[in-house]
Design brief:
alpha+beta, eight-stranded antiparallel beta sheet, single chain, 151 residues
C-alpha cells in the first residue's frame, strides 16, 4: 500500500500492525482484571500492540491496551446508551475525530461526534472480529481505488 501511496500522494506516514510486546501483554491482563472487557478484546491486545493506518482515508487507529487503561482512568467508561449496565471502552479512532468504542456486550460502536461527554453512537460491528474484518475491507478498498469506505 505505501509504495502506491507514495507515488500518488507523497511520503507515507506510519502504516502498521504492531505485534504486542511484553508491556502490551501486561496491559491486556490488567485491562481484563480491572474491567469486564470482552474476551476477544483482551485476546486481541495479547497479540496486537496497536494498529496505525495513518494514510488510509483520514486514518484508522486502534490504540494499545495501555491507552485504553489511561482513558479509563482519566475519563471512565463510555455510556453506550443501550441500557443502564451497558458501557464501553474507547479503543481507537478514525483519524477524523470519531472514536471507536468496544461495548461490554462485545459490539463495536463509532461516535457520531468527537465528544465523549454525551456520545451518540452507531453500532458498526456485532463483535471485534467483524470490526477487524471491516477494517481489512477498508484497507483493501483503499488500495484498490483510493476510497476507504464508511468506517
Amino acid at each position: 500500500m505505501t509504495g502506491e501511496f507514495e507515488h500518488r500522494y507523497g511520503p507515507p506516514g506510519t502504516n502498521e500492525v504492531r505485534p504486542a510486546d511484553h508491556d502490551d501483554q501486561v496491559a491486556a491482563r490488567t485491562l481484563a482484571r480491572r474491567t469486564p472487557a470482552p474476551v476477544d478484546l483482551v485476546t486481541f491486545y495479547d497479540s496486537i500492540g496497536d494498529v496505525t493506518w495513518a494514510d488510509v482515508g483520514s486514518g484508522y487507529f486502534l490504540g494499545p491496551a495501555s491507552d485504553v487503561l489511561l482513558g479509563l482512568q482519566e475519563y471512565g467508561v463510555v455510556d453506550i446508551g443501550t441500557d443502564q449496565k451497558a458501557y464501553g471502552l474507547v479503543i481507537g479512532s478514525n483519524g477524523g475525530g470519531l472514536a471507536y468504542v468496544a461495548g461490554s456486550d462485545g459490539a463495536v460502536y463509532r461516535t457520531r461526534t468527537a465528544s465523549l461527554d454525551e456520545p451518540e453512537l452507531d453500532k458498526v460491528a456485532d463483535d471485534l472480529r467483524q470490526f477487524l474484518e471491516l477494517l481489512e475491507r477498508s484497507l483493501t478498498r483503499f488500495i484498490a481505488d483510493g476510497e476507504p469506505g464508511y468506517l
